[in-house]
Request: fold
Amino acid sequence: MAEPTQKELIRETVKELFKELGPVLQSIALTPEKLREAQKPYEDPAELARELREQQNWRRQENEKDKIKLERQSHCPHKDKNGKWAISLVHNYHDHMPRGICPLCEAFIHPAYWDYRPVAQPDGSIKDEGYIVKEHPLYHVVRTLESF
Ligand SMILES: [Zn+2]
Reply:
């Protein structure tokens, strides 16, 4: 049997090397999943936490503003210093029903209307269900002002 040539020796060595490295190469191969994961933009946990805190602060401030506004509205006479209704009428609504706005407390005085809210169904899904929002307690004032 002839001695293997140097070329044949190298070929055998490379073959053996790849056989041993096979599992390692497979484990570092770029699969579509790994590629997708690598392409995701980096999200800094500290940045995410900061955004969440800002959102919570903003919501807390909005709730506080709403509370103050409702408090102001509950004490507002909605009348000017001459004792006349301060409520202004607004007419540009699709249902042609007037609305009223108190310039003193920003109270929005609306008629009864249909609205929708998400309601959990027995099958676990969520569907919007219609319900009637009662008219604002001062809507009678809007009706009276509209009749003038
Ligand atoms: Zn008012």
Residues 18 and 108 are 77 Å apart (CA to CA).
